[in-house]
Design goal:
This protein is 31% helix and 0% strand. It contains 2 helices and no strands. The longest helix is centred in the C-terminal third of the chain and has 21 residues, at 57-77. It is elongated and about 110 Å long.
Length: 94
Amino acid sequence: MDDAVPEAAPVREETEPGHDPAAPAPLNVPRTPTGVADVDASLGRLGDADHLATDGHIEVYEDVHRGLRDALTALDARPGPPAPPSQHQHGPRS
């Protein structure tokens, strides 16, 4: 029988993580709801950038820009008043 005592694992000192000024931090920029669901959703997406490193912001900003552009385009696509009847109607003559 072996009476040798196993070696203890080295003890690591627990260090408390310090504040890293280069780490992502929320900007806490207030966003006022517009009342337009698509626009509010796009603007809400800006908060996703708070948890990303700076090089990840561009993807979020491009996505928000695309959403806002789509919302504006949708305004142009809404139907307007009906067109007046054409004075040059083609049909069978009586």
